[in-house]
Amino acid sequence: MTFHILISDPLSEEGIYPLRQANGVNIVIETTLTPEQLEERIDGFDALLVRSQTQVTRELIEKASNLKIIGRAGVGVDNIDLEAATEHGIIVVNAPDGNTNSAAEHTMAMMMSMARKIPQAFHALRNQQWDRKSYVGVELKNKTLGVVGFGRIGQEVAARAKGQRMNIIAYDPFLTAEKAEKLGVDFGSVEDVLKVADFVTVHTPLLKDTKHLINKEAFEIMKDGVQIINCARGGIIDENALFDAVKSGKVAGAALDVFEQEPMVDFRLLDLPEIIATPHLGASTFEAQESVAVDVSMDVVSYFTTGTVRNSVNLPSVPKEIMKKIEPYFDLSERLGAFLTDLTGATAEEVTIRYAGELANMDVRPLTRNMLKGMLKRHLGKQVNNVNALYLANQKGIVVTEQKTTESKGFTTLITVEVKTANSVRKVAGTLLNGQGARIVKVDDYLVDVVPEGHLLYVRHNDRPGVIGRVGTLLGVEDVNIATMQVGRSIIGGDAIMMLSIDKPADTSSLVKLAKLDEIQGVTAINL
After folding, report:
1. Could you report the per-residue pLDDT of 38-57, keeping only the tens digit for each?
2. How many CA atoms lie within 13 A of 61 on its CB side?
3. Residue 518 — φ and ψ, nearest 5°?
4. What residues have CB less than 8 Å from 47, skipping those under 6 apart?
5. Model pLDDT, residue 487
6. What count of other Cβ atoms lies within 10 Å of the Cβ of residue 1?
7. Which stretch of DSSP H or E encloses residue 4?
8. Least CB-packed of 69, 129, 282, 374 within 10 Å?
């Protein structure tokens, strides 16, 4: 099978070398397409690789009927409609590590240039002005650098700033006291950081919560004479508020590599002598551009050869060693979801997945998505996959909950799925038995031992003598052969179930006849 890959933005030849080396890959490079031309061209391609030039819109995605993966050779995915990609089951990958060093170095270069007013002094020299008094700067030594966003790039900037003997205080929603101590930095809230910092650098993604994070109110709580750096994303800093803060003297300097609109359209910030700027050069090194392209190319090859990726934006990222441990449960989780959909015959309102035993200490989000895929495919067909299963469940108003416990009731691991519908609550539990494969071990409150595959019949009945015989006899008359049978009951003479594995699907007529037998409460066909 040949996979067709379209590259619509310029990528280095070294960056796409992994694609060149892969078998069964057809690469098409067209970097001058208009949006309209790209929409006409995209259908039939399995993968799309971009940088920041191509806008991957919902309209484009809806035209890409065969698209399976989108790769962005860069850190963010601002130019990709992530919701639309997820909705259509398309994996989006990027290169979160590829330009870390480049961005950190550029941040330091901008901060030092701003502190020593190097661009302004150079501009004066270019205009034949020898003016030393106007360009007196400040040292970084013993100053406090506030880092808002302490991920990979933020930490790299902090490491370099410590080399300049700066004090570091950082904010990040995932930064703990233990981690901060280990990294040798102070930490606090955004307000804590802004109040004490002499220099503030931002390294957060651009989200709803971070748009205009540095705004008029933020500037008001900063020190007088603070200096600001943004080499992350345009829009984190409110440019109008920054303009006013510089004009008022609150901000002594700003170094900007990114802007709210790019290419830049409002140049009034650059009319202020306190501001220096570059045209989004944070990742513009030969090394970084090659590295991000290589990372994305390798993920695309991995997806087409193994079905896995390292840097998915819309799939949970799970360490390789954990994925190896949970991978054997993928098939079981999907079959449990499909089993419950057939069993309930109704729309789920709430789904609870409980992971017990060894799985309780692992990242099981991929298993949850896989279970939902099995559940939703019964109604939505092949459009459901691991990428969009959770999204589609949310769109359908299904509340999904994960729970974990180390108590597994005699099993090494146990996955229990409970579904609440408008009229009932049903559940099924499964596990993997050493050397014997997947098993369903409990249906509702009945203990069973059933292989979750093929054609099954779930029969509810009263625990009376002769019931099992009558079921077997009728199926024999209907030419339906029973492969295995499991019986579960609560108390002697009470409610009970039969789980039958049969060689071929029972037709509707046979199911109706079974349901009419004495002591039979109901019959459900389940096809796995």
Report:
1. 999 999 999 999 998 999 99
2. 21
3. -60, 140
4. 3, 4, 5, 6, 67, 68, 69, 70, 71, 300, 303, 304
5. 92
6. 5
7. strand 3-7
8. 129
At 488, the amino acid letter reads G
Say whether 386 sits in a helix, a strand or coil. Answer: coil
pLDDT tens track for 235-279: 999 999 999 999 999 999 999 999 999 888 888 999 999 999 999
Of 253 and 76, which is predicted with more confidence? 253
* Amino acid 74: pLDDT: 86
Cα Rg of the chain, angstroms:
30
The answer to whether 478 touches 510, Cβ cutoff 8 Å, is: yes
Task: Give the whole-angstrom CA distance, residue 93 versus residue 311.
Answer: 5
Beta strand ranges found along 332-491 (DSSP E): 350-357, 399-405, 413-420, 425-433, 437-443, 446-450, 455-462, 482-489
Residues 6+ apart with CB under 8 A from 154: 147, 148, 170, 172, 201, 203
Opening angle at CA 494, ends 491 and 499, nearest 5: 85
Strands (E), 78-178: 91-93, 144-148, 167-171
Secondary structure letter of residue 136 according to DSSP: -
Catalytic residues: 233, 262, 280
434 compared with 350, residue with greater pLDDT:
350
**Greatest CA separation found in the chain?**
108
291: pLDDT confidence band, cut at 50, 70 and 90? Answer: very high
Q: What is the pTM of this model?
A: 0.62
User: Residue 328 has what DSSP assignment?
Assistant: G
Long-range contact pairs involving 505-510 (C-beta distance under 8 Å, separation at least 24): 505/455, 506/455, 506/457, 506/475, 506/478, 506/480, 507/478, 509/478, 510/474, 510/475, 510/478, 510/480
pLDDT at 409: 75
Determine which helix (DSSP H) or strand (DSSP E) holds 27, and give its type and residue range. Answer: strand 25-29
